[in-house]
Every structure is written in structure tokens, then in C-alpha cells.
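User: I'm curious whether this sequence folds into something compact or stays loose and floppy. Could you predict its structure so I can see for myself?
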Amino acid sequence: MLESQNNNFVMYDEEFQRISAVIEKLLRESNAKVIFLVDKNGQLIAGCGETENLDTTSLASLTAGNIAATGGLAKLIGEKEFSILFHEGEKDNIHISIIAQRVILVVIFDHRSSLGLVRLRVKKASDELAGIFEDLAVKAAEVEKAGNVDSPFAEITDDDIDNLFS
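Assistant: Here's the prediction. I'll summarize afterward.
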């Protein structure tokens, strides 16, 4: 179980596996080099592809910063946000999209693919990922409603901790 820094969602292994399967399929079907899923705080959630020569921590953080900056631009012109960003380079391109207003999907691709193919495949993967994050929100609400009784720490008191260290 992985908890997001901003406590907006908790990542369970089942959903993480589903997310990994979706982004790996997107990597294959879009002929991309790298795919990342990042939360809006810049924390890397999942990634696949040719990541060996990339500083994934910086990429995740800068992507979130990019989304925040373009969000500011959007507000200045009366938009809620820009849900898709595209950066074209000499060798590599980056397609960035916001999924379910919760996470950021980053696709890095080169001449082996095209913007049209990436956009088409991202649309399908976005719908699948949005469904997974909706399932996560429902599961988190159910756990919160149940009072998180499954936690092995639920019955530990401050007195128990004091007794342990005295």
C-alpha cells in the first residue's frame, strides 16, 4: 500500500498492478520510449520503458511544475486547466495529460511513433486509468468509513508506546 503525499489517495497493490498493465500496454501500442504516471505533487507513481538514462525523480517533479505553471496560464485566460500539453524536440517529444484531475500521464516518444498515434492510444489508456483511480477513491472511502480496522496499529495506544521505550 502506497499513500500519496497529499493524502488524496492510497495506492493498493491490486490497483498498482492494474495501472502498470495499462501503461505497459500504452508503451507497446504507441511505440513510445518511456511512460510515467506522476501525482500532482511530483511524486512518481509508476513508470515503464527506457528509463535507465533518465533522472526519473527530476522528470516527475518538473512535470508537476509544468502542469502547475500551465494551470496558472489557463486561469489567466479563463480556463480551468490545460488537460493536454505537448513539447516537441529535435529527437524526442513529450505528451503530457491530466488523468481524472488527479494524476499526470507522461509519454516520451521519438520518430518511431507520431503525435496522432500517441494521442489516440493515450485517450484509451486515460479512460482505463480514470476508472482505476475511481476504484481507488471508492476503496479509500470504504476503508475510511470502516475506521481502518484492518490496520495492525489500530489498537496501539500512547501508553503502549511509552511502555515499550521505558
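Summary: Helices lie at 13-30, 56-76, 115-145, 158-165. Residues 2-165 form a domain with the Beta-Lactamase fold (CATH 3.30.450.30).
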